[in-house]
Specification:
The complex is a heterodimer of chains A (about 180) and B (about 160).
Chain A (H helix, E strand, L loop, with lengths): L1 H27 L15 E2 L9 E2 L8 E6 L4 H16 L4 E6 L3 H11 L5 E5 L3 H5 L7 E5 L5 E6 L4 H14 L12
Parallel strand pairs in A: 3-4, 4-5
Antiparallel strand pairs in A: 1-2, 3-6, 6-7
Chain B lengths: L7 H12 L15 H13 L16 H15 L4 H12 L14 H39 L5 H11 L2
Helix pairs in contact in B: 2-3, 5-6
The chains are: A alpha/beta (about 180), B mainly alpha (about 160).
């Protein structure tokens, strides 16, 4: 009896390890961002709507922001657009767009046609700022707290479910309270 | 009946050559000013991962982001950064995953140690099995000498010979 005990225990242990691995496989395929818990990267981008007011790291302090990286060439971005419009309607967290490797005319046409959820859009035509943000596929959405620290990152299309489950609770749970209307809309 | 040597071969060769298209380079980043830098550029772009097409290196990927990152590697080299600084630059943005050769840290030390540890466990188990077997065989022989060993002994020997790896 005894001589089977050890191999059996080893086998059970192996099965347990593999099961945990299998269960965690889907979340493991999404790469964690090294930016989480760090201040947003220093950047300045031209404003899509207004050349005199650039979008910079300073724009992202003093209030919560949802930074959304998108492009008119990005199919998933079209899919998430409605959700962004809904989030804008909620008026709890202003959405800041980074238009990644795109043409300004295309971007303006897209926002005119589909509606504009963004408070400000920076145009990252050569993709440098997106690299500093560790972006590797649009759409990506970052939650930035009033101190300008990246709190959470979602890769892929934003959905109501993700917004309710991952983003909103982090905003409302933070000390200093959820200021309902976003500052300076 | 002997046939004349085939005249197809040169023709086939011509067709094959005509069909072979030129190979297009993926990496269109301008070359660096000196061979040493170019060599470092080559090494770095081969050990950094393309984050979009995760099994390709930066050097081999035709994706836009990979091209942008190659340009960045080139610029950092020109700015005089060391290989480690450039690796750190990429890791700070994309995480350790961008390195094809993972670094050894306290967090993954157990992974690095696992092969040697498992090897030692294997050797220990094997050694114990062999010792037990030797003892059993020894006991069998003793039995056989003592009481003729009509049943059991040979069977057991056979089992031991065939059963274990």
């Amino acid at each position: 009896m005894n001589r089977f005990l050890l191999p059996l225990a080893a086998f059970v242990l192996l099965v347990a390890v593999l099961l945990v691995g299998l269960k965690r496989a889907p979340e493991k395929s999404i790469l964690p961002s090294p930016l989480i818990g760090k201040p947003v990267p220093q950047f300045t981008l031209p404003n899509l709507f207004d050349n005199t007011q650039p979008l910079s790291s300073a724009t992202l302090t003093g209030h919560w922001s949802l930074v959304n990286v998108w492009g008119t060439w990005c199919v998933e971005c079209r899919a998430e657009h409605q959700v962004l419009l809904q989030i804008k309607q909620e008026a709890r967290v202003p959405i800041i767009g980074i238009d990644w490797k795109d043409h300004n005319e295309d971007a303006l046409g897209w926002l005119e046609q589909l509606g504009n959820p963004y408070e400000r859009v920076g145009t990252d035509n050569d993709g440098r700022v997106a690299i500093d943000w560790g972006v590797y596929g649009a759409p990506e959405s970052f939650l930035v707290n009033p101190a300008g620290t990246v709190v959470y990152k979602h890769i892929g299309a934003m959905t109501q479910e993700v917004w309710q489950r991952e983003f909103l609770p982090r905003v409302t749970a933070a000390p200093g309270a959820p200021a309902p209307p976003g500052p300076g809309a | 009946m002997r046939r004349a040597p085939s005249t197809h071969a040169p023709l086939l060769l011509c067709v094959a050559l005509a069909l072979a298209g030129p190979s297009y380079a993926v990496d269109t980043t301008p070359p660096l000013p000196n061979p040493a830098l170019q060599q470092r550029y080559y090494n770095l772009t081969h050990e950094l991962r393309c984050m979009q097409c995760q099994s390709e290196a930066l050097a081999d990927s035709s994706v836009g982001l990979a091209a942008d990152l190659r340009v960045q590697v080139r610029e950092l080299l020109l700015a005089g950064q060391s290989d480690d600084q450039i690796r750190d630059h990429m890791v700070a943005r994309y995480g350790e995953f961008i390195l094809f050769r993972p670094r050894m840290t306290w967090r993954n030390a157990w992974l690095w140690a696992a092969p040697s540890v498992l090897m030692l466990v294997g050797v220990a188990v094997g050694w114990r099995v062999l010792r037990t077997r030797a003892r059993l065989v020894g006991a069998d022989d003793g039995d056989a000498n003592a009481d003729g060993d009509v049943d059991g002994g040979p069977d057991r020997d056979a089992d031991l010979d065939s059963g274990k790896p």
